[in-house]
Amino acid sequence: MNILVPVVAVSPLRQRLIDEMAMHRFGRETQRNYIRDVGRFATFLGRSPDTATAEEVRRFQVEQRDQGVSVPTMNSIVSALRFFFTQTLDRPDLSRKLVRTGHVRKLPVVLSPDEVARLLDATTCLKHQAALSVAYGAGLRAAEVAALKVRDVDSERMLLRVERGKGGQYRNAMLPVGLLALLREWWRAGRQQGVLFPQGWLFPGQMMGKSISTRQLHRVVVEAGQAAGIGKRVGPHTLRHSPSTACQGRRSGEPSPRICSKTGSTSASSRRCLAMPGSIPPPSTPRLRPARCAP
Question: Is the pTM of this model over 0.90?
Fold first, then answer.
């Protein structure tokens, strides 16, 4: 039996907003958030948002505050509506009525070198350990780790090529020697398992032809943190923040810790600075874990 799925037509106003965001080269996530926030304002009005008045814009912000909407969320809505009023409707008078709220930014949660080593040791397979080591050693975001391909590893220049990172920007990240050794170990294991290909994803997901998801990376970090007995609330971004803040006391001109390309071990005098960008802490025990992760 054939089931007909109704197709909802996109309104001309929404299509105009989408076209404007595309011309400004907004990312997919940003476009989705802007459409959601403008839709929230339209729901408040009960009619098309292009008929809004300045008083209704003010009342909308007051209602959001009274409902307990967090300050970052309110500022995100302001950004979406400001773009909508200015670029889509050409109504800068409404944009001037939007108010951004200042708020105190909290310091990110960071891990000590020992905590990072314990977390990496608590991973259940080589692929997960390599992926989290890339996030920590190269300072990559979860989405950037998931988007890496085998060809993005430049072992000659010791760089990782990041395509379309935050803001759609391309950049190169430093590739530590110890991290390269771990990636080569994962390459050999992945090739034996038939999941790694020269033109494929560096960290493939459970489904053939797709990369590991950011949601899965987050789950891996949380489970590894719990298994390692780390009481802090950790996620993939915690690994990215840890190298840049855990070693701010390093003296100017002091060399970064050297990591053996074969064993990944470091000298005792370098352990206090293992959290510097471009270094991977050695596991406290030999890596005796499977290459393929359980589904």
Answer: no
Kindly report the CATH number assigned to the domain that includes residue 206: 1.10.443.10
Where does residue 201 rank: exposed (0-12), middle (13-18), buried (19+ CB within 10 A)? buried
Same domain, 147 and 233: yes
Range of the domain at 35: 12-95
pLDDT band at 163 (very low <50, low <70, confident <90, very high): confident
Q: Are 196 and 187 in contact (CB under 8 A)?
A: yes
Model confidence at 293, pLDDT cuts 50, 70, 90, reads low
Helix, coil or strand: residue 237: helix
How many domains is the chain partitioned into structurally? 2
Task: Tell me the C-alpha distance between 258 and 156, whole Å.
Answer: 18
Cβ atoms < 10 Å from Cβ of 106 = 6
Contact partners, residue 160, CB within 8 Å, separation at least 6: 134, 138, 140, 148, 152, 153, 154, 172, 173, 174, 175
Q: Is residue 284 part of a domain?
A: no
- What is residue 209's predicted lDDT score, i.e. its pLDDT? 83
pLDDT in tens, 209-257: 899 999 999 999 999 999 999 988 898 888 888 864 434 433 333 333 3
